[in-house]
Amino acid sequence: MKYSFLALIIALTYSCSESPTKTYFGGEVVNPNSDYVYLYYDNNVIDSSKIDQSNRFSFKLDNAKDGLYHFDHNEYQYIILEKGDSLLMRLNTLDFDESLVYSGMGSEKNNFLIDMFLIYEDEEKAVNKYSELSPEEFLTKIDSLKSMKETLLNDINTKDPLSPIAKHIAQGAVNYRYFTDMEEYPFINKRRNGLTKIANLPANFYSFRKEVDYNDTLLMYYKPYFNYLVIHFNNLAYNYCKNECNGDLNYIERSLHYSTHKLQLIDSVVTKNKTIRDNLTRNVAFSFLLGRHSRAHNEEFMDAFHKYAGKNQHEEEINNFYQNVQNLQKGLTLPPIHLVDIKGNKVTIDSMSYKKNTVFYFWNYHQRDHQANVLTRIERLKKDYPNYNYVGINVNEDRSEWLQNLASISKLGDTLEQYQTDNIDELLGSLVIKSLNKIIIVDNKGKIIDGFGDIYHRKSLETSLSDSMKK
């Protein structure tokens, strides 16, 4: 429901006395880069507000659910909204997070949320440096940082007591980034200090895990909470495999049994919130299936997935993804690719189209640095492996802007074949493109040499290119 900004200002004055069931949220976006602000609850868009000529937007919510929301204007941030709140915000898109500030009813808890976000960002380098210290020294440093945040939260709560819901979310903003730092410490410490094994940890090192709620409905769409759970289950599975499974410790995280253990662990403890369970097991599935495993191991994993994560709300998506991954296995024929050439002609590249071995690469004209890096690396490969054909596929939708970029590329000396997709979803799905670093290599009959190459993994890429030329 849209609401005029003038009406919002009036609501800020009278909302508490008039109707505690209403919630107001609005503000100003300096240098807007799109026409709308979108409001989400439980990861679903519940409303949109068009930015007016004064760069203002506003929402009025009737009987809104109290809890965690997020707003989006090409970037996003979380907010806590409760009945009776009349929240104003101001931000400048040129400095989105750092410029964000709230006022009005509900501002204290939301300024705390953005403060926690910015403080943790500022602390990231220091915490990484602390990770080189002994476990005892690290605990002292990290506990001190957490204590300062909790003091700030207590001060806010003393001045104007937060509701149980707001306090729970605010405490989660403190806890779960701290918990993540704790879970990551043993592995960062091992890597940065060049150790062969993880340092011995104090008996109480993981005592914070007693505070973890695996089924937290209020935080289930809060990214720091979800990211923590992912890392936590990674660690639990790693330590189980380290103690119970045979194999090279350096390759545990690539193993089938490691991912199977994660599914079992999630299934055993995330028992009261199906959404969290489904999202976590979806993450396990995508992580494994993108790991360049054999067809047989992919099949075994999917058997385990259906056993431990059955009736998943993402099941259709995961099954389709699995099938697309299996279709890109070495030796199979690359699925047909539907494209548009520079003249506007629709082109299908299939097994009959190849005259010689071919390298496919992908780019986006909004990602200027990536585009330049990819083209530079492709030019280098073209000189080192001239017997290959190199085909660039643009993933943007605007044809005129694509052609303008091609003109710029041509001035730099790039005369490689260039196409644009005419169906972005089909292309990304059938070719399993989760990153534009992706490279696909096929032979002159369209048989896949490498369906999961990476433009930045030069050694592996050159092995595929060299070996195929020997045949």
TrEMBL record:
* First and last residue of the signal peptide: none
User: Which InterPro entries does the entry link to?
Assistant: Thioredoxin-like_sf (IPR036249), Thioredoxin_domain (IPR013766)
Domain spans labelled Thioredoxin: 328-471
The name this protein goes by in its record:
Thioredoxin domain-containing protein
* Superkingdom classification of source: Bacteria
